[in-house]
Inverse folding.
């Protein structure tokens, strides 16, 4: 259990504002390159834009406000309008799920409070839809009892930026409300597609009235639920063209490079699903590793069309870069565990970490033994190179990079501290030689990718350079210096920068009298970044490119037709 520093002895050495302690994220300051990569690959999607329907719902709410909203367009009037419809939508969706007796895991905005309201409602009782959604006369959100803290609900919190990227709307002068305006070529067309759905007209009526029965809301919930976009509707047709960049007029508000990478990424996901036949769990993880190995679940090569080759290359590079980050965070975690036992001098901590990194890894019931590492960097890299013989080249086999990564994840979750540095060292060595066919700079395929990477100290290209330039060095010395610079010192620099710029302390340990002293209340476990791939699969499912039955995903007839139309 992590223990806090004895502040009686040491607080005098730190400025008073350091008392504002937060957990923070990215304690080594290394995740931004991975984030930049996946943002470039799926622009218009984020880790919180879960459903395709919201890309139509929010433009429709803006459109209806222009037609039916208050004559005096104040901030409060606009916020009450969008929040009331947003919350009524959530309650209607939850009422539908209650009616059919299923939790559809639908990622509806405001679902937590909406579910409580639905469960507490009596059959003929009028549900209050305004109480949890209305703002004050000044447009301020009440401090308690509301469905969402953001003043513009899920639109303001999640979808506003994405809709601008897709060209559905653009910013308007803040002297009028709302301070966004739908584009005539995209946003208005999406919005008007919902005007033909009578259930959405009822939704507006209930939201304006501020009350409706559970039965009334459940009756419209089926039609408006994000799971139930009609397969042949105008709404779904427009959204498909927007996401895939298929209509030049409709997509004129998008940057060509942006819709190209999004289109290629979505098509690559569909192509992988077609070749893999089915995906049952964690489609994002499976897809990322498939891009890194160019292999299907059965171990056979994934033959990727030329059209999608660059997208597969970038996603494979992203996966390798993210794995590098994860390895460094694992060393940070192992270091914190050691300092948790007692304050340590940096050299003593590094000796423990590097000794474990060099040591052999014993076999267990799940994994085979791994020999100790060679004493020179060049030989270490050679020893950790992926096997190339036919009999042992299974991309998912016991010596594969994915298996090593899974083994490392297990060591972290089970707190097998001795194994963490050892497995990190094997994966780091593998990342030097296994480049996935990248020639030159790994980020060169992305516009401004090389320039983006140049502004960061830790990423895949820097790792390649570091290992190659020191190939004749001692492996132990090399790893010790790496852990010191890219983990120990780096955390202190990042935390100091956050303290100076934001006035918050994210230190997990501090130097005190020549020792590293733990100050964390709890230890942050290593994490991968979340690259929006899961959201991409889900939106493709919403648009009927993918069918899912009992949790198993398969490519639909429409998905196959889309791939064929793009010669993929």
């Amino acid at each position: 259990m992590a223990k806090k520093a004895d502040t009686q002895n040491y607080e005098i050495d730190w400025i008073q504002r350091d008392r504002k302690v937060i957990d923070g994220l990215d304690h080594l300051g290394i995740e931004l390159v991975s984030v930049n990569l996946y943002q470039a690959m799926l622009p218009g999607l984020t880790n919180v834009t879960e459903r395709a329907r919201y890309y139509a719902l929010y433009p429709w709410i803006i459109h209806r406000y222009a037609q039916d909203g208050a004559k005096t367009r104040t901030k409060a009037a606009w916020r009450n309008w969008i929040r009331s419809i947003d919350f009524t939508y959530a309650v209607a969706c939850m009422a539908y799920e209650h009616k059919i007796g299923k939790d559809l895991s639908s990622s509806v905005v405001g679902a937590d409070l909406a579910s409580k309201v639905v469960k507490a409602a009596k059959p003929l009782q009028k549900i209050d839809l305004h109480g949890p959604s209305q703002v004050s006369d000044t447009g301020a959100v009440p401090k308690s009892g509301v469905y969402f803290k953001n003043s513009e609900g899920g639109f303001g919190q999640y979808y506003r930026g994405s809709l601008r990227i897709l060209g559905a709307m653009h910013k308007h002068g803040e002297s009028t409300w709302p301070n966004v305006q739908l584009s005539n070529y995209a946003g208005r067309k999406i919005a008007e597609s919902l005007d033909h759905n009578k259930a959405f007209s009822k939704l507006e009526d209930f939201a304006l009235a501020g009350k409706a029965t559970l039965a009334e809301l459940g009756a419209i919930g089926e039609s408006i639920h994000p799971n139930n976009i009609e397969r042949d509707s105008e709404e779904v047709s427009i959204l498909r063209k927007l996401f895939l960049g298929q209509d030049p007029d409709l997509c004129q508000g998008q940057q060509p490079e942006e819709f190209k990478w999004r289109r290629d990424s979505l098509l690559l996901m569909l192509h992988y699903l077609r070749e893999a036949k089915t995906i049952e769990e964690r489609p994002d993880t499976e897809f990322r590793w498939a891009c890194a190995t160019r292999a299907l679940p059965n171990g056979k090569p994934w033959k990727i069309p030329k059209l999608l080759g660059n997208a597969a290359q970038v996603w494979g590079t992203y996966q390798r870069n993210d794995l590098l980050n994860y390895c460094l965070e694992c060393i940070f975690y192992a270091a914190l565990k050691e300092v948790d036992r007692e304050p340590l001098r940096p050299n003593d901590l590094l000796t423990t970490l590097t000794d474990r990194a060099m040591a052999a890894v014993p076999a267990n019931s799940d994994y085979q033994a791994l020999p100790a590492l060679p004493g020179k960097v060049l030989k270490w890299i050679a020893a950790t190179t992926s096997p190339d013989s036919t009999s042992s080249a299974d991309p998912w086999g016991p010596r594969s990079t994915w298996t090593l990564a899974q083994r490392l994840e297990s060591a972290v979750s089970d707190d097998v501290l001795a194994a963490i540095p050892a497995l990190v060292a094997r994966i780091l060595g593998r990342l030097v030689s296994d480049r996935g066919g990248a020639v030159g700079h790994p980020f060169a395929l992305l516009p401004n990718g090389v320039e983006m990477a140049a502004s960061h100290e830790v990423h895949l290209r820097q790792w390649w350079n570091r290992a190659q330039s020191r190939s004749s060095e001692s492996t132990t010395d090399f790893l010790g210096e790496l852990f010191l610079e890219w983990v120990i010192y780096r955390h202190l620099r990042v935390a100091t920068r956050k303290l100076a710029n934001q006035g918050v302390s994210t230190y997990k340990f501090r130097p005190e009298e020549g020792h590293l002293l733990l100050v964390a209340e709890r230890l942050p476990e290593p994490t991968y970044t979340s690259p929006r791939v899961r959201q991409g699969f889900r939106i493709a499912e919403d648009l009927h490119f993918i069918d899912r039955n009992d949790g198993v995903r398969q490519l639909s007839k429409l998905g196959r037709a889309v791939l064929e139309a793009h010669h993929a």
Remarks:
- Residues 1-5, 7-12, 14-18 have pLDDT under 50 and may be disordered.
